[in-house]
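[INFO] parsing input record for Ig-like domain-containing protein
[DEBUG] input buffer:
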Amino acid sequence: MSNCVSVVLGQNGWSVTYTTQSICALKGSTVELSCSYTYPSGTVTTTFWFTKMETGVEPEDLGQDPEYAGRLEYHGDKKNDHTLRITDLREKDSATYKFRFITDQTGGKYTGSPGVTLSVTGLQVMVTGGHQDKTLTCSTTCTLTGNPTYIWYKNGHKVKEDTSTLHSDYFSDAESYSCAVKGHEDLLAPALCKNCWIVNYTHQSICALKGSTVDISCSYTYPSNHEIKTAFWFTKWGSDMDPKDLSSVPGYKGHIEYLGDKKSDCTLRITDLRLSDSAGYRFRFITSGEKFYGSPVSLTVTGNLSHISHLLL
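[DEBUG] output buffer:
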């Protein structure tokens, strides 16, 4: 991440300096928020980051928020510097993050303002122009930090490594186009194709902590002349059996939530993860004329925090 002008706000020896004031990061990637701090006397006993603050109420350490379970790492010496690492970024992680520290002195509490504004964005292929001269744009909701290089794919093959735009005088409706940011080639944008059958997953494998919540991000494409009749997730399949909708499988009721819109988003949320939830998950949809399902996403649920940290690094 590139650095912006540091911000120092403080009084009487209290201060927090943030390395950067704002960051735009890619959904599914990892981000680090850094700061240094000073205080007049005493010993620092507690350090943490938070996003929510109410008047008269002590802020809650992000490490206690189940939405971040298994995705946070704190690095600091409890003397003058601190770094927060957030892995597997989600769009709902977009917020202003502030650092707070507490010393053993009376009234020895301080929060650094204004904090770091984090915006998390996915990638989307947008098309503009006429029939003969079209431009594809790898679109984001904020300008990615670091001026990244974009990679373009046609029918799954790399065709260009340059900017966020792709120009051509001919785009076939039967060909798929996608893009990614260099260094994050596994975080592809949902493929654009008017007459293709595609299921896209943000991650092909996920490791999550027991008791946490996981979102299996998913999007899909189908020919424009078809209409979705049924869409669901399943874990068991075979040549001699029809896949069964997870919502009808004993043990999953109240445990899963289908976040999709039955148009293009097929994200699945699983709450209060159990070790037995480790499996391969696949999305299936049926239109007015065809049936299609994507390759499986491997979910591994672990009770070992060091194991998941190792896998996410």
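[INFO] Residues 1-9, 306-313 have pLDDT under 50 and may be disordered.
[INFO] shutting down worker
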